[in-house]
Amino acid sequence: MSAVDRPALAAAAAAAHGIDRLLVAAGPNLRWLTGFTGSNGLAVLDVAGSGGGIFLTDFRYMEQSAAQLSSVWEVRQSAQELLGPGLADVFAQAPQGALARVGFDDAQVSVAAHRRIVEELRGRVELVPSGGIIERLREVKEPAEVARVRAAAELADHALLETLERGLRGRTEREVATELEVAMLRLGAEGVSFAPIVAHGAYGALPHAEPRDIAIAGGTLVTIDWGCRLDGYCSDATRTFAVGEIGAFERSIYGLVLEAQEAGLAAVRPGPLGREIDAVAREVIERAGHGEHFGHGLGHGVGLEIHEGPRLSRMGETPLAPGMLVTVEPGVYVPGVCGVRIEDLVCVTETGHDVLNGLPKALQQVD
Ligand code: ZN
Ligand code: ZN
């Protein structure tokens, strides 16, 4: 499945937290660690071992686990709540009083599940909050993961080009969004990575606008933010188009966002912190007097999840490293007038970056 020994990598990272076991519940972290795509599973990673451990799931997923997991995992069936009695069975033979330090993801495990574990495993384990270990490892992608995101980005581009062939003017935002979604599925995507955003005119000033049943009028800008999922990996891109002749003000906003986007993009390479890349693009927009119209971060990591680390925002303290996949997506949103966002998805390389999506960024007129 993966060229890198992820369980060994995770065990090494977890060891730095002084824990004996790390619990990883179903979701993107478990998929990354084990390859398991089902909805109910729990890995109990043996931190001291060379990587591997016990994998709990219920009878529905026994066959799937055998197919998806490598032999470093001892798959066990449990009919009980995994984060509770199921886990208690794993530690049943451990002598009372010999506390195992068990790391759990404090951002994912519910208060109820935490209470269950404490009650079921009293005297056997000590729970240690250890969130973020797997997320941080997931930030740096392997070449095979980059290839999947690139394929998803190419498919999404292709789907948008098909959708634009039928024009934008006179069609409702919702029609365009639905057609785009169907095109991505028809071309082989397993789903969308998020519901496409199609917003025109003043409505484009809402960064997360939901498509409306309102026809796209001439003389407006239309922002389309879309992405698909392929082999579990997400793509994400945004383009803003002109429908018919737009005014000088809209044109100037477009030019400003493009300048900021290209400046931010040019800064993407190994070394700088996320917030430093954010600052490069933000400064362009601030200098033009539109600082208050750019109210979100410059970008985010993309992978098994549409929003993951590292963040390119004022709070981004992670230095960029080769293999990270991030978006660069400045926007200027002028309330009641218009909005422009331009977003590329890029891979940080040894020497700079590589853009994974490919549609042109010069202002394009689509009718
Ligand atoms: Zn996006
Ligand atoms: Zn994005």
TrEMBL record:
Gene3D superfamilies reported for this sequence: Creatinase/methionine aminopeptidase superfamily (3.90.230.10), Creatinase/prolidase N-terminal domain (3.40.350.10)
Keyword vocabulary terms for this entry: Hydrolase, Metal-binding
Molecular function as annotated in GO: hydrolase activity; metal ion binding
Name listed for the protein in its UniProt record: Unannotated protein
Pfam assignment, any one: Creatinase_N
Annotated ranges, domain Peptidase M24: 148-350
Keyword Metal-binding found: yes
Metal-binding as UniProt keyword: yes
PROSITE patterns per record: PROLINE_PEPTIDASE
Boundaries of every Creatinase N-terminal domain copy: 12-140
